[in-house]
Specification:
The protein is about 40% helix and about 20% strand. By secondary structure, it is of the alpha/beta class. The strands form 6 sheets. A 7-stranded mixed beta sheet has the order 14-15-16-13-12-18-19, sandwiched between helices. Helix 2 runs antiparallel to helix 4, helix 2 (about 70-85) packs antiparallel against helix 5 (about 165-180) and helix 9 packs across helix 10 (about 305-320). The longest helix is centred in the first third of the chain and has 28 residues, at about 105-130. The protein is globular and about 95 Å long.
């Protein structure tokens, strides 16, 4: 019998609750196209209940139960969650794999990162205690000033399907560490492990209402969450179009947002590289996670002197990637997440051909896989900068290629995009790498690699890739409000106005 996902309800106020309209959404295994369960479909009525629960939790006992408790108190819960996830790592990884198609080895790695992220923000929560009342140096001795860092309030966290649990935790862990109460709305295409995170929170005794998990469609659950007047901030990772809608909704009530909106990231390969090392990083940078990476270095910009030889090597590496059911041992490329994504990717490829590009390899379903949303890793050459494939994010295993002659030309091509999330440069000339890293218009630059990600380092983009940063201390700052406290310490009167005459 095929693996099934656990049947869960919405998680609101520390308990499972059936959606008010009782609707559910089928979960489809993208490797088999079989229905393997369903998830609850929240609507605006459920959002109302969840926001009310979060507000109560945030202000319970005048905030002493969570919001204004010590960071050390909150850290204990974050560490308990990390321990439970580590304990259930294999189970969670399998659920992630059958839900979104991610190769099992990658899913296991993600679960280790999930636990590590909770541990990291537990440390930062504890460190927050020592940073409270940090003094501010003033030019006048008659005043003393310090800063308080306080949780921003109730936050809405709307997260994507490519790293279903990990990218949710990139927001959940710092939000809880800061003392916020949160409502998590994961993508309807991959919500299963986020519901299991809710069960972990219930098991460790996280105070009711501090984390609520609402699964459902974007327009039915995400939109009312983004526009809700009692939600103090929205953090979103997803598409540019949805990010724009969230900004518009938040603007009506002057609500802060942080947005990570994907990209069309470049990888520049110079002529002085080891061809095999560069080829593997180029493949990994675009085809890892089945090519569904917001920071995928999907525009290869390669020096013309090595282009032919490099592409020959790259094709050999790509043809050696094991494409299979993602639960199979050694799988390195599984299916894309859904039928809709599958059709969208194939349309991008056919448009590239129609516009005059050449499909060097891939571009079709693998012959040995008759079922599932599988697309062979695809390399497209003879690309011009006006083509759709060069300008738009595919979100699938598709790499497009251009050549360059000079460093200036490489930079011009790299920055020829409305996006600015990731970027990579591969060269043995480290001074050149340093020049490129300063000149490239992106929030992240990788040198002699592509895609490494650590929860200690900031993650986010420029231009249409959004603003604000996840991860690191910057991720915690996303959920903190800074309060200035200034005291007059002199015994002397202020003396600005003439005092009234004394009778």
């Amino acid at each position: 019998m095929a693996l099934q996902v656990p049947r869960r309800q919405l998680f609101i106020d520390g308990r499972w609750r059936e959606p008010l309209l009782k609707n559910r959404i089928p979960v489809i295994n993208p490797a088999t196209e079989q229905i393997i369960g369903d998830i609850p479909a929240a609507t605006s009525e459920d959002v109302e209940i969840a926001v009310a629960a979060a507000r109560r939790a945030f202000s319970r006992n005048k905030g002493k139960d969570w919001a204004s408790a010590s960071g050390a108190f909150r850290a204990k819960y974050l560490r308990a969650i990390a321990a439970k996830i580590t304990e259930r790592k294999t189970e969670f990884a399998k659920l992630e794999t059958i839900d979104c198609g991610k190769p099992l080895d990658e899913a296991v790695w993600d679960m280790e990162d999930v636990a590590g992220c909770f541990e990291y923000y537990a440390d930062l929560a504890e460190a927050l205690d020592a940073k409270q009342k940090a003094p501010v140096s003033l030019p006048m001795e008659t005043f003393k000033s310090h800063v308080l860092k306080e949780p921003i309030g109730v936050v809405g966290l709307i997260t994507p399907w490519n790293y279903p649990l990990l990218m949710a935790v990139w927001k959940v862990a710092p939000a809880l560490a800061a003392g916020c109460a949160a409502i998590l709305k994961p993508s309807e295409l991959a919500s299963v492990t986020c519901l299991e995170l809710a069960e972990v929170c219930r098991e460790v005794g996280l105070p009711p209402g501090i984390l609520n998990v609402l699964t459902g469609l974007g327009h039915e659950a995400g939109a009312p969450l983004a526009s809700h007047p009692n939600v103090d901030k929205i953090a979103f990772t997803g598409s540019n179009a949805t990010g724009s809608k969230i900004m518009t909704a938040a603007a009506q009530v002057v609500k802060p947002v942080s947005l990570e909106l994907g990209g069309k990231s470049p990888i520049i390969v110079f002529e002085d590289v080891d061809l095999d090392k560069a080829a593997e990083w180029t493949a990994f940078g675009c085809f890892w996670t089945n090519g569904q990476i917001c920071s995928a270095t999907s525009r290869l910009i390669v020096h013309e002197n090595i282009a032919k030889e490099f592409l020959d090597r790259l094709v050999k590496w790509v043809k050696n990637i094991k494409i299979s059911d993602p639960l199979e041992e050694g799988c390195r490329l599984g299916p894309v997440v859904s039928a809709g994504q599958y059709e969208k990717i194939l349309k991008f490829i056919s448009t590239a051909k129609r516009e005059g590009a050449t499909i060097l390899t891939g571009g079709v379903r693998p012959k040995h896989l008759k079922k599932g949303y599988f697309v062979e890793p695809t390399i497209i050459t003879d690309v011009t900068t006006s083509m759709q494939i060069w300008r738009e994010e595919v979100f699938g295993p598709v790499l497009c290629v251009k050549t360059f002659r000079t460093e200036e030309e490489a930079l011009e091509l790299a920055n020829d995009t409305p996006y600015g999330l990731g970027s990579a440069v591969i060269s043995n000339d480290l001074e050149r790498c340093d020049r490129i890293s300063k000149a490239i218009q992106a929030g992240i630059v990788w040198i002699n690699c592509s895609q490494p990600c650590f929860c200690q380092a900031p993650w986010g983009g420029n231009k249409r890739s959004g603003f604000g940063r996840d991860l690191g201390e910057w991720g915690l700052d996303n959920y903190l409000s800074v309060k200035q406290v200034t005291r007059y310490v002199s015994d002397e009167p202020w003396g600005w106005y003439r005092p009234p005459s004394k009778l």
